[in-house]
Amino acid sequence: MNLTYFRSAAIAAAIAAATCFLPLTSNSVGGSHDKISPIFGVEIPAGYRDWRMISVAHEAGDLNDLRAVLGNDIAIKAFREGTRPFPDGTVIARLAWKHVPSQENNAAFGREQSFVPGVSTNLQISVKDAKKYIETGGWGYGQFEGGRANRSEALMKTCFPCHTRTKPTDDFVFTRYAQ
Amino acid sequence: MNLTYFRSAAIAAAIAAATCFLPLTSNSVGGSHDKISPIFGVEIPAGYRDWRMISVAHEAGDLNDLRAVLGNDIAIKAFREGTRPFPDGTVIARLAWKHVPSQENNAAFGREQSFVPGVSTNLQISVKDAKKYIETGGWGYGQFEGGRANRSEALMKTCFPCHTRTKPTDDFVFTRYAQ
Question: Cytochrome P460 domain spans which residues (chains A, B) (predicted)?
């Protein structure tokens, strides 16, 4: 490798790094922007499906979903110890699926009572970084559908205003740890 | 320590081991039987609350609960790879809480739609050991309330008959892995 080649490669890498936070090995069909949320630049965290469970929920009405809320190690520790505000590095993953009846379970039980996850609706990721996200209470947000970031800036602008409706002592987080 | 003392201690330990499967350091208020299910001798697995999530569910009707199903490493691997029957050592933990409205969330959203975990109802543990539990499809069961085993043999006798209502290919397990 000669010096000219090295310099060219270094410049190309610097330009790529400056224009996109993603690794150069991105294999997203729709381009690298599919992986990061607008405004906040939040990505799907690697291995989030292996994270421990904070809680579950059921949103009825229009949403009609079943939810699971998982957290990285920093999140779990903070939830268990009641640490507020959440420390930097806290990441919360909210999974949701359509709330659908389980025909199989209902047939087994002889009653229409069992609801299970249907198709995934979306994945929402909340990242705590008090400095980076100072304008939104220290939280960055992303919503992902089928593994791709929802690129609507309008949608992203609804996240924080909604989370401001939590109690002041909750550091903008709705979820409680399920014992 | 002289030999007589050693022999006495060994005999005492042997008697204890023969009459009770639990460690001698049990600190259960109600005695060691509070920790194991009747018939199957299943205990609450250490660290189960740190296990990864298999799925969630909502049982309406009389049960009126929200559920989370967690699994140990063997269970998670089998669910993800579709291994059936489940290998020995599979342990599945089904947590459940009352399905209660979140007044706080509903006030924030301006709609009556949000349901979250209330008080814990019970914890059910399923353990796969094809040889030990040969008479119940290879599964041993336990139900725990407030950390104590439900000691009703009649209840324990309802577990396997209900699980036989699953499809033959499901190895007596209702839950599906939530993607």
Answer: 45-175
- Name the H helices within chain A: 3-19, 73-81, 103-109, 153-163
Chain A residues within 8 A of B66 when measuring between CB atoms: 56-58
Token pair in block for residue B24: 């001698």
pLDDT per position as a tens digit, B30-84: 567 899 999 999 999 999 999 999 999 999 999 999 999 999 999 999 999 999 9
C-beta atoms of A99 and B58 within 8 A: yes
CATH class of residue range B36-170:
alpha beta
What is the spatial distance between Cα B20 and Cα B35, in angstroms, rounded to a whole number?
11
- Count residue pairs from A and B with Cβ separation < 8 A: 114
pLDDT tens figures, A72-130: 999 999 999 999 999 999 999 999 999 999 999 998 888 889 999 999 999 999 999 99
* Candidates B52, B57, B176; nearest CB to A115: B57
User: CA–CA separation, B106 vs B10, rounded Å?
Assistant: 61
Spans of all domains in chain B: 1-30, 36-170
